[in-house]
Each structure stands twice: as structure tokens, then as C-alpha cells.
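User: For documentation purposes, I need each entry recorded in a consistent format: the amino acid sequence on its own, followed directly by the corresponding C-alpha cells. There are two entries in this batch. Please keep commentary to a minimum and don't merge the entries.

Assistant: Recorded as requested. Entry 1:
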Amino acid sequence: MGSIVVPGSGDLARTADVVIIGGGVIGCATAFYVSSSGLATVVLERRDALGTLTTAASEECFRAQFDETENIRMMLESITVFEAFADVVGIAGYNLSLHQQGYLFLTDEPGALTVQQRVAHQRRQGLHDVEFLDAQQVRQTFAFIGDEVHGAAYRAKDGWLSAHELVSGFAKGSRAFFALQTPATGIRLDTQGVCAVETPRGEIQTRCVVIAAGPFSSVVGAQAGAKLPLTAIRRQKVVLRDTAGIPQHAPMTIDLASGAYWRPETGGAALGLALPEEPSPPTERVPTDWTFPAIVLDAVGRLVPFWSGVAARLTRDQVFLSAGQYTCTPDLKPIIGPVPDVPGLFVNSGYSGHGIMASPAGARMLADSILHVDATLHNPFRPDRFTELGTQISAERLVL
């Protein structure tokens, strides 16, 4: 079982096979798979607890409804882990609070044919259980859908879970040592590549360092002279508590035209919308904008009429607003594997808002890239895919 402590004098190992920088969901999942292979693993987390930065601000959802084969495969592998999580981490009866209530992408009349074609494409890519629902089918299945909806994509096995329990399960089920309140202040190199990680509690000698620091990954990479093509983008989240009129059996529901989404949360709902945002410096305190709840509530009501009534009855003490940062790459796919030109330096970051849902498969891939050199050749998310691309992320692409 993993050891999660604030190290005292002499507690922090002076050598390790692998040092992972970052104790969010990606770092903890990586620690589970790496340490399970028998490698002595240390995770450095500068905050007081694991999973308290971007992981805690996430929507906690997962889906396999992607267009690219590599994304579909990654998500299906991860969902299989979620479904058998207690067995995977070896903790009998472990409860991930898994809700497989589906993902429902809604469209009005102009987009119906496009959604139908997208579902057909996804099925050809191996996602055989995604469905297209026409206007009649979607309202028969989900009575709360408005008349403006002319089609939908639906997959019943998508859903959401507890991010806190996911992080804790990976950490407790691992064989790693998790050092809290222990930032990585430097990565030392020698003629062979990575040789040590510096911390305020002492130096750890290692030939393998994994950067899994979310929006701070580019900052950590710079310690080793690596320029990672990562950009931080703010995303806000609204949670409604003690709110009547929200069907608790509903799926995660998204308006494809606006991107506005909502899902049930015990006694209420969680809502969000990816508004256009300029990239921002990584920060531990992401500011919020209290105009955001009104914008989201108006947007989700366009195709789901009951939201107008909910919004009219809301009081300020029922509304909770938070924000985090997506760590984005130029193609909005993660970077997983060895960093070019810095032997021993690996990265597992840049999930562009999909870190919770892809964490098991991404961590397994990262572990494979450490254990098997040739694994990188078959990895569609390897860092060197950007060699011939620019490193500036497109804000316009993020809006899409």
C-alpha cells in the first residue's frame, strides 16, 4: 500500500528508480502503474494533499465518444479500469462512486445530419455501442428534452465518478512513497541525462523523472531545459445544491451548438461551458467570474426547458462557483512518454480537459514507455510528434 506522508527528517529516500513530480490524478495513476511493475517510486507533491489542484476542480466525467481511434481506445481502456477499480487497485469493496448514466450530445435541426454522420464514424472506429437518437427517440427516452432537439448522440456506459476516490484509490493501491509539502525545486542533469531531483528536504538521485504537474508541467520541464508545448486555459464550474426539479436519473447532457453541459449532482447539478479564454500563466488560485452562472444557466435552457424554471427559483446560497485550468497541447491530445533530447525525462500531461477520464490508460502507456523502449514507437501521444509542429496553441481551436 502506498505511503502518503509529510516527510520528516530522514523519511525521504535518497535514491529512487522513478521520481514523479505532481500528485494529481495523473501523477497518482502513473505512480500506481510504475510502482506495480516493481520500480521504487517517489511522488513529490508540493501541496498539503493529493489531487487538490486541477483534479479537485474537474467535472469528474468520462466518455468514450471521441472521433479519433486513439482517443476512443484510450477511453475504453480507462472505463474498463473504472468498472473494475476495486480489483485493479487490490482494495476489496473500494467505492469509486461510479455513475454510468450516459453522455447525451444534443443538436437542433441544422446539426442532426452531422451528428448522425459522426455516430456512424465513431462506430467505424470501434465505438460500437454509441447510438444516434432521432427527435422522437430522444424525447421518448429523456422526457425533459425540448422540442428544438432534432437528434442526439448517446452512449449509456459513459458517466462520472468521484475524482477524490480515484486519486486515493490509485495512491493507496500503489507501492509508491508520496511526499506531501515537498516541491521539486530543480532537476539535475549530467552527461547521461537526468541524474537527480532537488527538493527542500534533500536530493533524490534517479535516472528517471516523470513530469505530471498539470498546468505547472511546463514550469517543471524548464528546470531540465525542456520546452513543453503546453498552455494553461481557465475553465469554470457551477454546482447547484439543494435544488429541486433536476432529474437525478439524467445523463451528462451537452448542447453541441454552445458546448454548455450539465449533469445531476446529489440534490442538484453540476454545470459548465467552455467560454473563449486567453491562455494564462499557471496558478494555484484560479479566479472566478460571478457572471458565469447566469451565462451557463441561460445556455443549458436553450434545449432543456426545465432549466428556465430552476434558474428563476435559485437563491445565491444554492450556487457554488469554482475554477481550474486545463493543460492544453496544440492538438488537444496528451503528451505521454520520453522528452526528446533529455534522456531520462518523461512527461504525462496536456490532457486538455480529459485527465480524469484518460488517467488509467495514459498512466499505463507512460509506464510502458519507461519499461519498454520500443513502446514509444507505437504511442500516438509521444512527445516527439510535435517536432515539426509549432508550439503555440490556438485559442480559436480551443473554442471549437
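Entry 2:
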Amino acid sequence: MSKSALVVCLNPTFELTISFNKFYENEVNRSNDYFVFPSGKGVNVARVLTQLGENATVFTHLGGNRATEFIDLCAAEHITLRYFEAESPIRTCINIVNNEKSTSTELVQEPLPVEKEASKRALDLFSSLLPEFDALVITGTRANGYDENLYPQFVELAKAQKKFIVLDVKGDDLKKSLPFHPDIIKPNITELMATIGEGKVIFEHEDTEALRDTVCDVMKRLYESYGTKSVISRGKFSTWAYDGAFIEVPNKDVPVVNTIGCGDALTAGLTFKLLAGSPLKDAVQFGMDCALKSAQALQHGINLQ
């Protein structure tokens, strides 16, 4: 029987993807190949979970004069929304796909802050919805204005109700949530080092083999302290994981079209398999396969054909 997941996305966005056969900096670039779709890390995760046949619901806020457009776009993809109103309008991020170089460059518009009362509205709706679900997935950053303890409160409530918890967050959201024993954390290597690396900047597509021992020590410590398993994605390189023993799952070298959202596809595939009872290594492999499927198409999501 399929299980249900509540996917938290308190930073929704429209994603404008524009594909170019060639892209020239400091010049006018024109393309007829573009589209807009609903996004934000939680929406991306729910999209793939839905495509896999899982019962996934996005928990988010909506505001501004494009909220109805966002709802309609989600409905067109059969993405279920539960939302509350906030004054912060939905932002737009731009993804430039350069087919000549096989690169995807995302230009991120930071959101306007939500109003002070949004945290209470979020907590009230979350508390009322949580009993309906088997799992909680929290992914991505909060919009500015939310209480800094909101995500840890979500995790505490979910753990008290014995929900399966997956976190793809970083910084204080991650640190403050760990004492409530989430089941899985899944930051990428950039997010992990931003959390533990004392200001050290690591790029997602950088070869980080030299960090293996450091990351392994962190994953081991988290497992021993909180019972939390770790999955650390590293772009085109192998994924590292820990469930009491170190796990390395190699990536596959295949041609890619659009890599934006691949980490979210990994999170979705990982969650799908873990909810079905698969071992962590198998779940990571399936998640990586979902990420590769997503990367091989211009549109977000996976091709199940």
C-alpha cells in the first residue's frame, strides 16, 4: 500500500527555463524554447513522488497576484497543494540551459519576507495536517521572516507522532532539528560544508574526494548521537551515505540536458524507496537513477516510459 508524504516548501517559486543552442555573455540572446512551471525544492520533490505513484502533498504559502497561476500549474501536473496565505509574492527564478556546453545556470531571485504572523499560520495548518501522513519531508530554505525555530518545531511534532522524517536543509535549520532525531538527512556537499565547514565554500560540481574522511566523521557522529542516517549528494560524483557503515554509490556518466532539480529528484526517489522498506544503499541508487532521468530532459521530473 502506498504511503503518504507531506512535503514542506516554504519558499515557492516560478521557474522560467530558457534553452539556447548557443549563449553569449554580454550580448542579446533570443530563444523560442522556454516554459514556466511551479517549483521550489518541495514542489520538485512532490512532483517526482507523484510521478512514482506516491501520495505526496506540498505544504506551502502563497501570496501575490500570481497565486492562482501557481495553483493552476500545479493542478496541471497533478501536484496536490495545501497552503495558507502570506503577503510575500511568489518569486521567479530563471534557468539558462546552454545546449552547446551542456550546462544549466540558475539565477535565483530571493523572496520578499513573509509577515510576522505567517509563522503561526504555518504551525497551525501544519499541526492540523500532520496526522494524515506517514512521512514528513522538509526541503530547502525558509523565506525570510519565518521564526528560526519553525522547522525544528515541525520535526519535533512529527517525531512525537512517529512519522518518518527526511530533511534536506542546512545551517541552523539542520542543526536545531537534529536533537529531535530525524530519520534521514540529505544535504548536498555544498550545503553540508556550509553547515559544518566554518565558512569554507564548496561548489556542488567540485571534486570533493579530499573531504571524504571529514564527511565520514560527521555522518558517523550524527548517527551515533541522534540515530540519523545521512545521504550526501556530490553532483556528478559518487554519493556518500551512512547507516552505521559508510556507503558509496557511484554516479553514471551520461549526457545531460538540464541538471537543475536533480537533487530534488534524488530526495524523492530516496524517500519513495525508504518508505517501501528498501535498504539505504538501494534507496540511494534508486534516487540517483531518478536524478539522472531528470537531468536527461529539459522539463523537471522523470520519464517513466
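Summary note for entry 2:
The first helix runs from residue 41 to 51.
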